[in-house]
Amino acid sequence: MKIVTTIFAALLFFSLQAQNGYSVGDKATDFKLKNVDGSMVSLADFNESKGFVVIFTCNHCPYVIAYEDRIIELDKKYKKLGYPVIAINPNDETIVPGDSFEGMVKRANEKGFTFPYLRDKTQEIANAYGAQRTPHVYLLNKEGDDLVVRYIGTIDDNYKDASLVTKTYLSDAIDALLEGVNPDPDFTKAIGCSIKRKS
Amino acid sequence: MKKTLIIALLLATVSFTYSQDIPVYEFEGFEQFLNQEGDSLYLVNFWATWCVPCVKEMPALNKLAINYSNTRLSILLVSLDMPRQIDSRVKPFIEKYNLQSKVILLDDPDFNSWIDKVHEDWGGAIPATLIYSKRNRAFYEQSFDYEELENIVQIKLNEL
Q1: Which of B54, B55, B112, B145 to mutate against chain A (most A CBs within 10 Å)?
Q2: Domain made up of A2-194: CATH architecture
Q3: Lower Cβ count inside 10 Å, N or C end of chain B?
Q4: Is A198 helix (H, G, I), strand (E, B) or coil?
Q5: Hey, are the CB atoms on B125 and A189 less than 8 Å from each other?
Q6: What's the ipTM?
Q7: In chain B, what are the domains?
Q8: Residue ranges of the domains in chain A?
Q9: A11-45, pLDDT tens digit by residue?
Q10: List of long-range contacts for B64-67, beta carbons under 8 Å, 24+ apart
């Protein structure tokens, strides 16, 4: 009985861990995921970069669609400065068929994505990071041998209309890292589409 | 002074109303629905027509509205669809599912400024449901089936 309780407590602990994921200051894991061009992409492949803008995203979500052009612009601007965008789709395609790998290839081609768009089919990476919705941004900074999470949250304060944005949270955070300081704020919230997890 | 402010807020709310049937609020005008002080149990569900798990749980919410229509349960369905989709998506959805509860639309894109005011545990995913009374407040960032929802509501109604 005691063993059962212990196992149950351990399982509960791990499931809570999985759900909580990273906080700002945590070390982030690398991964090896399939890109829309068929290649396998790891963060370790980017020798020259200073960090990464990891964005959990998908094909179908209206908030994602509203942000796609802004994500392309962010990548164009910050890739040159050492912070490329890495987009990851973890959604279970049995729940939303449009979020399949084929759907990703189609969307990447339609929009002319300038960044890798990776399939996290097992959801292992979304679970490790604790991503809850799309789009959900994790800004990683290379510090020694580690990738340290320096900002978690949303892109800006107006998904509907880029011209009405007053707070550019994500680009402010990257600019802060480029200046050698930690972002403030380093955590924001937003409404997004829930990540469709396997049951 | 306070009265003037309230009237100004009400007027602001009215000017944000795009449709006769489904009022549209910015967060400031909407906040009253999170702090009602009557003797009811208030269930506030955040959803959208494009949100797959929200659509899936809607029949459970509607069944609850029908089965508990003579109780002190008050259900409010807060759509996060865009105002321009009221006629094309929200109204047809209400008709299709024959929704019995009041539907309003919350249109305030500065999410980070208000999510914590709904509940600090809310990460931002929908569906999300707030159930509160004068006695207590509970927040659920998840989908419900009918049974689970009814269990929670029954316990809380008994506590009133």
Answers
A1: B112
A2: 3-Layer(aba) Sandwich (3.40)
A3: N
A4: coil
A5: no
A6: 0.81
A7: 18-159 (3.40.30.10)
A8: 2-194
A9: 444 444 445 799 999 999 999 999 999 999 999 99
A10: B64/B146, B64/B149, B64/B150, B64/B153, B65/B99, B65/B100, B65/B101, B66/B100, B67/B150
